[in-house]
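#structure-requests
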Amino acid sequence: MADRLTQLQDAVNSLADQFCNAIGVLQQCGPPASFSNIQTAINKDQPANPTEEYAQLFAALIARTAKDIDVLIDSLPSEESTAALQAASLYRLEEENHEAAARLEEVVYRGDMLLEKIQSALADIAQSQLKTRSGTHSQSLPDS
């Protein structure tokens, strides 16, 4: 996962790409402008270009990317975040980490105890099966 500044830079680059693409598509699909002193032959039978649809599409993309950029900017640490506040936050995170580590150690210990019980039970079952099998074999052998 990229850090927030990298995400912000990627979003700004994406916004620049969207602006360039929007201008290119609108330039390509837009109707020609008429000039008063120049007569041009415009084919009136040309199919209608979906310029309005492109405009709405790019407007939505640009607005969403701008909103993402605002969210990323808001998630950056503020200038009011002093070294003391950051140290306190790190200390709190370290305490939470130690508590989580202690819980994890307890869970691992209980898991090891359960594993030993299961292994002991499996060993007892295996011994019982061996005794049962050896007992049936000795009974089925004829005495000489």
